[in-house]
Amino acid sequence: MKAMLWILTLVEAAVAGGSPADSNYTQGINTTVSVVVNGFVKYQQMIGGGCSGAFGVACDQFGRYGLSPANQDIVTETLFSENIGGLSVLRNDIGSNGSSTDGSIFSILGTCPSTPDGPFDYTWDGNDTCQVQLSKTALKYNPDLFIYADAWSAPGCMKNVGTDDDGGLICGVRGSYGNDNEGSQSESSASSQCNNTDWRQAYADYLVQYVKYYQQEGVNISMLGAYNEPDFNPVTYASMESDGYQAKDFLEVLYPTAKAAFPDIKVSCCDATGARQERNILYELSQAGGENLFDVATWHNYQSNPERPFNTAGQPNIMTEWADGTGSWNAYWDVTGQLAEGFQWALYMHNAFVNSDTSGYTHWWCSQQTTGDNALVRLQNDEYFVAARLWAFAGYFRFARPGSIRVDAQSSVENVYVSAFVNTNGSVAMPVVNAAHFAYDMTVNLSGTNATTAKAYLTDNEHNVTMVETYPVRGGSFSANVEPRAMKTFFLQ
Ligand SMILES: *[C@@H]1O[C@H](CO)[C@@H](O)[C@H](O)[C@H]1NC(C)=O
Ligand SMILES: *[C@@H]1O[C@H](CO)[C@@H](O)[C@H](O)[C@H]1NC(C)=O
Ligand SMILES: *[C@@H]1O[C@H](CO)[C@@H](O)[C@H](O)[C@H]1NC(C)=O
Ligand SMILES: *[C@@H]1O[C@H](CO)[C@@H](O)[C@H](O)[C@H]1NC(C)=O
Ligand SMILES: *[C@@H]1O[C@H](CO)[C@@H](O)[C@H](O)[C@H]1NC(C)=O
Ligand SMILES: *[C@@H]1O[C@H](CO)[C@@H](O)[C@H](O)[C@H]1NC(C)=O
Ligand SMILES: *[C@@H]1O[C@H](CO)[C@@H](O)[C@H](O)[C@H]1NC(C)=O
Ligand SMILES: *[C@@H]1O[C@H](CO)[C@@H](O)[C@H](O)[C@H]1NC(C)=O
Ligand SMILES: *[C@@H]1O[C@H](CO)[C@@H](O)[C@H](O)[C@H]1NC(C)=O
Ligand SMILES: *[C@@H]1O[C@H](CO)[C@@H](O)[C@H](O)[C@H]1NC(C)=O
């Protein structure tokens, strides 16, 4: 209760501090900003925003702690509907451990053969630790869902450490046999359990088999990944290491295997812990001759930020996992300035899209029964609470739909961040984030669009992507007010 009052006081202070009604606040400051959007200068194609039900957390959303079927549906709709959260990417976790301990995902390979020649006794329970249900309900609200199936590790029997946790390498990649592991992070590679056998094809077949099981369920997997944070060994959960050279040794097997089974499927590389760590892997992969053995560069935002374009051979990149990690639940837009607030996420996305040509942005969990801050929706038995982070995603992705192209947008001031995206039907989404503590009067000049109206959707401490105004666009130009510490998305048609 005490904490609540403190928060309310902060909300009032934040609002009062930035209020344009305080006429002295901006004395001597130029409060006009001019924005130029050039639809003829095109950058990356967008894939969308997303989240994950990995590690068994999908089951939280499907009743494990009492969320009723009606609310299960509402939570899915809130996340994935084009008119609410606007998400269109779902990252599923391919399990690697046959024994179902808490937090580990059911694996399709319960017991391993003693040699890579098999036979492989795959099994499927049609459930995949509630990820099938999450996929199917998300598809109901977004039929064009982009599902990313990603493994944290190969099954233990295919690795030089013999278990799916504790890092280690796929048997068959350079360094995995224990005698040539210079530079490897894997302590146990010195005593390799690979016995000089090569399990790369077995692991590739196993990943493809997982995609086939989803196909049987009527669910198409759009992208397949073999790694999660291969630059990091957390020891205690499913994990597997790889540098870019070792990734080359495996992707040269996985890439043709995946394409032979599913010609349209995308193969990712490599979900590193940070943007810099990902660039490092991509550089090594390219140096080893593997720059064309993946379709999408995937990275997490934990250990470093995107600051410049990725060093791919033209492939797009997606931020595939990030959340606060250790903080307590924070549902606010802009109250404490804490890194997990919605307003901050609007800026993280701006920076990734504009500075690193990022095509998609995936929060860690979708929903979770918790008091922590790792999900977009917090569940408490049959109640649910939405973090303002979801409104930041919605401010981009309800309007810049999958397939849209980012185009050039320039702002005359540093504290007004503008990006622009042209949808496949020619409509334009222009998210504007005003980081100033006062309102700006904005004039926008547009080229490369025939839009005649601009509808404005406001997100701040009091609004969640709320339509507030419609402006006429005349001669490729319009003027609008942008509120302090707010995201205002203009949708032009
Ligand atoms: C506010 O503005 C008025 C009129 O310009 C001026 O007289 C007054 O001194 C200002 N107050 C402060 C605290 O700056
Ligand atoms: C204020 O900023 C706008 C846009 O950057 C600029 O066009 C205008 O000349 C500036 N006005 C003054 C008085 O500096
Ligand atoms: C899926 O499996 C989980 C246990 O992992 C179980 O709680 C849930 O009821 C199952 N869902 C369905 C639809 O069978
Ligand atoms: C499965 O997980 C358990 C618990 O983490 C671990 O002890 C065991 O070694 C794992 N099995 C394999 C084959 O990786
Ligand atoms: C290597 O041999 C050991 C001992 O027989 C066995 O436990 C292990 O599973 C083998 N590893 C592989 C990758 O075949
Ligand atoms: C899955 O992909 C196949 C092949 O591209 C396509 O024919 C089918 O319509 C897709 N199914 C769904 C449910 O999207
Ligand atoms: C906006 O969303 C928050 C949760 O993020 C909710 O608490 C609040 O009531 C919503 N406000 C409006 C005006 O819908
Ligand atoms: C164009 O596409 C956008 C994004 O999908 C959609 O919201 C809008 O309604 C479409 N406009 C028309 C005129 O169909
Ligand atoms: C915007 O367009 C108007 C009218 O064509 C023009 O006068 C103005 O210079 C343009 N502003 C910028 C910043 O391009
Ligand atoms: C705008 O209209 C012109 C004339 O109809 C057309 O040629 C052009 O493709 C349109 N531009 C866009 C971006 O839709």
UniProtKB/TrEMBL annotation:
Q: What keywords are assigned to this protein?
A: Glycosidase, Hydrolase, Signal
Q: Which PANTHER family match?
A: GLUCOSYLCERAMIDASE, LYSOSOMAL ACID GLUCOSYLCERAMIDASE
| UniProt-listed Pfam families | Glyco_hydro_30, Glyco_hydro_30C
Share an example GO biological-process annotation for this protein: glucosylceramide catabolic process
Q: Domain (Glycosyl hydrolase family 30 beta sandwich): give its ranges.
A: 403-490
Q: Which family does it belong to?
A: Belongs to the glycosyl hydrolase 30 family.
Q: A GO molecular function for this record?
A: glucosylceramidase activity
Q: Which domain of life is it from?
A: Eukaryota
Signal peptide segment = 1-16
**Name of the molecule in the record:** Glycoside hydrolase family 30 protein
Q: Where is the Glycosyl hydrolase family 30 TIM-barrel domain?
A: 66-248
Q: Which InterPro entries match?
A: GH, GH30_C, Glyco_hydro_30, Glyco_hydro_30_TIM-barrel, Glyco_hydro_b
Cellular component annotations (GO), alphabetically ordered: membrane
